[in-house]
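Final report, closing paragraph on structural work. Over the funding period we assembled a curated collection of sequence-structure pairs, and we close with a single example.
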Amino acid sequence: MVDKKISKILVPLDGSKNSIRALEMAMSIAKQFETTIIGAYSMNVQPRSEFQTTSTVSNELKNEAKKILDNAKKIATQNNIDFKEKMMAGNIGYNLIKLAHDKKENFSLIVMGSRGRSVVKELFLGSVSNYVIHTSKIPVLIVK
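Its predicted structure, as stored:
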């Protein structure tokens, strides 16, 4: 048997059923290893050209993200799991990989849903989970 310690788990959240299932799976793993879950919500904000005004994240989007992260924290707290939240803006896949590879964070595992809320978008742009699988340097668990 392999004796590998999982120190911290990254769980991308978007409010979809798959992301909640991923959170539930991460909580199961976190209980076994007595570790922390970091719930991450990345707001998809497109870069602006130098001729456009500075990009800002709408209050609606921030409120939606806060609501999703608060719900995840409530679920984790009810299950006695240490949960912290992280909110980001920009390219979702890039933000998740940047956070996952941050040496200060020291993540051992990414647990994420196979699909988020935008199935149609995945057909044209490729899924976030596919991007994460192919660019992550740490193990990724995909939950259906």
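Residues 45 and 57 are 7 Å apart (CA to CA). Residues 8-143 form a domain with the Rossmann fold fold (CATH 3.40.50.620). We thank the funder for supporting this effort.
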